[in-house]
Amino acid sequence: PKKKKWFRLKEATPFIFAGIWRPWDGIRGPKTKPVEGGHKLFAFITTEPNAIVGAIHPKAQPVILTREYWRSWLTDPWDKVKGYVLPSPDADMEKPSDAPR
Question: E strands of the chain, at which residues?
Fold first, then answer.
């Protein structure tokens, strides 16, 4: 079985995953209890992995935003924030450990 891995930035630096959301009208939920109407859909933004994440998950990694970029991601136009969609520098991350149970 796969072992879950724990990734973190050095010095336990707080971060958020970049994401997007948008309103959508339609039917969501399980077939047994569908919910029709307005919904908010959310998705994490991913990018190519850095060497640390790529050793475990070679397809993608979530875009990690540190405190200096949070407000900008949430308020500035796409033309400014699209430059944040990059892998985290290897030097900013610790090597993964087994996830806590």
Answer: 5-6, 15-17, 19-28, 35-44, 46-47, 61-62, 64-66, 97-98
